[in-house]
Design a protein that fits this description.
- By secondary structure, the chain is α/β, with parallel strands linked by helices.
- The strands form two sheets. An eight-stranded mixed beta sheet has the order 1-2-4-3-5-6-9-10, with helices on both faces.
- Helix 1 packs across helix 5 and helix 1 crosses helix 9.
Length: 270
């Protein structure tokens, strides 16, 4: 599906009906990665309308020169919400870069965004990240990936098995050729948001923060510090998980996201 926001055609996938859930993917991929991780969860948890946009410069959403930084990306997402959600209460989920944007949305619209989930979120600054460490290496890559994709897989996953390879091939690899590298460089050169999420008032709704113990991109120190801004937050650091935590620990992710959804529903009725 597609909607035009500020003259930018924003592509998104939509599934189900009920309370809207805006799910934002990370950098260098498109909506298929986070959708591939979350859809199996929502298939067992009805009552939610899932919205998966391609962020500017990724997937089928372009990054015109009018988008010069993350403030412009945030404005585009707020316009998208106005167009396809309206004034309904909604939930927001973000992985990695998408987590930075999700936090900003929740903090700018705390009365409408009634739940926030962050998976391996990055922030304005990243520190204390471990070096990349492969914990499990049992995937047979013979002839399955070209050298560039193999290098991406090897550097992304700390659990390299037949199952994580399948997830990479289905949810991550197809999006690489659709990335506007110059567009992302322009956007990321103006990374910090003018309204810093961490400078906002405490967010009153249920929150979930998941971090990978072996995450060499976001680490777990920064994500852990976020809970000071979220008095209703569950924070979990998962072993045997890097930045690809959604794919490496799907069972735990499913349990924790389902518990968060239960808390959101409970909180919304009180």
């Amino acid at each position: 599906m597609e909607v035009t926001v500020s003259e930018v055609p924003v592509h998104y996938a939509e599934y189900g009906s009920g309370t809207p859930v805006l799910a934002l993917h990370g950098a260098g991929v498109d909506h298929r990665e986070i959708a591939g991780a979350l859809e199996p969860i929502f298939s067992n948890f009805p009552g939610f309308r899932r919205l998966y946009p391609d962020l500017p410069g990724m997937g089928r959403t372009p990054a015109p020169e009018t988008i010069t930084g993350n403030d412009d990306v945030l404005d585009l997402l707020l316009g998208l919400i106005d167009s396809i959600v309206g004034d309904e209460p909604f939930l927001v989920i973000g992985h990695s870069y998408g987590g930075y944007l999700a936090r900003a949305i929740a903090n700018l619209r705390p009365d409408q965004a009634v739940g926030l989930a962050l998976i391996c979120p990055v922030g304005a600054h990243t520190r204390d990240v471990p070096t990349h460490e492969v914990l499990v290496s049992s995937a047979d890559l013979t002839g399955d990936l070209d050298p560039d994709l193999e290098a991406t897989y090897r550097s992304y996953f700390v659990v390299q098995t037949a199952e994580t390879l399948r997830r990479f091939q289905e949810c991550v690899a197809p999006s690489g050729s659709l990335v506007d590298e110059l567009g992302l460089m322009r956007i990321f050169s103006n990374w910090e948001l003018r309204n810093r999420p961490e400078a906002a008032k405490a967010y009153p709704h249920p929150v979930l923060v998941l971090a990978g113990r072996q995450d060499s991109t976001a680490g777990y120190t920064g994500p852990g510090e976020l809970i000071e801004h979220y008095p209703r937050a569950t924070f979990a650091v998962l072993d045997r998980a890097g930045h690809a935590l959604m794919h490496e620990q799907p069972g735990l992710v499913q349990a924790l996201v389902a518990e968060w959804l239960t808390r959101v529903r409970e909180h919304s009725t009180t």
